Amino acid sequence: MTRRRRIYEGKAKVLFEGPEPGTLVQYFKDDATAFNNQKKGVITGKGVLNNRISEYLMSRLSEIGVPTHFMRRLNMREQLVREVEIIPIEVVVRNVAAGSLSQRFGIPEGTPLPRSIIEYYYKSDELNDPMVSEEHITAFGWAAPQDLDDMVALSLRVNDYLSGLFLGIGLKLVDFKLEFGRLWENEEMRIVLADEISPDNCRLWDVKTNEKLDKDRFRQDLGRVEEAYQEVARRLGILPEGGPSDVKGPKTIQ
């Protein structure tokens, strides 16, 4: 297998040059970080599980008309995605009070919100991903007003669909983070969902017990982190046979 050119490495994934123009290979790592990279660790098998989970959720969203950068899974840790111009804004959708929202406003964790709340954060590790307003986003040119309208509309649609999907398997979608990119096709540009959707960027609680089945188990030293990710995959019906082991060699799985 020829050695691919590394384009970018983040905290949880590596992007390599794709086999065709306009494509990238997204590789999922087992590395885990929290509190803007202040806490670091490894969750064994996380990359394999997140690859499968994100593939499944992106595919379902695509089926209902949500445009995404996902093309197909290549193997246990890699997927082929369209190359997009990432918008440096994280869109967070909150349905239940948790995390920084609870801390900022003194709302007990687990309190249902009167309606879904959307927040924006500027993607910058150096600045600890500060919370920003629509005014900041448009004034500094990070996204045009129409781009932002598209991002909000897509975020609400994703929230509506995923809330129902997870509820059907006994999980509560507490909150989640989305990233978007500009996909250029000839002279046309459209906003598409990018990055991943997995327990790394979704808070998922068991409906009956409120047990946390996401990266909060790593953040809060709750233990059984690998088992939580496996449980989400199991409920979705996509846990690989024999658990989250890697494919040996350059074999491609379609």
TrEMBL record:
CDD domains: SAICAR_synt_PurC. InterPro entries: SAICAR_synt/ADE2_N, SAICAR_synt_PurC, SAICAR_synth, SAICAR_synthetase, SAICAR_synthetase_CS. Keywords: ATP-binding, Ligase, Nucleotide-binding, Purine biosynthesis. Belongs to the SAICAR synthetase family. Residues 7-235 form the SAICAR synthetase/ADE2 N-terminal domain. Gene3D superfamilies: ATP-grasp fold, B domain, Phosphorylase Kinase, domain 1. Pathway: Purine metabolism; IMP biosynthesis via de novo pathway; 5-amino-1-(5-phospho-D-ribosyl)imidazole-4-carboxamide from 5-amino-1-(5-phospho-D-ribosyl)imidazole-4-carboxylate: step 1/2. This is Phosphoribosylaminoimidazole-succinocarboxamide synthase. Its EC number is 6.3.2.6. Pfam families: SAICAR_synt. It catalyses: 5-amino-1-(5-phospho-D-ribosyl)imidazole-4-carboxylate + L-aspartate + ATP = (2S)-2-[5-amino-1-(5-phospho-beta-D-ribosyl)imidazole-4-carboxamido]succinate + ADP + phosphate + 2 H(+). The keyword Lipoprotein does not apply. PANTHER family: MULTIFUNCTIONAL PROTEIN ADE2, SI:DKEY-6E2.2. GO terms for molecular function: phosphoribosylaminoimidazolesuccinocarboxamide synthase activity. Signal peptide: none annotated. The keyword Translocase does not apply.
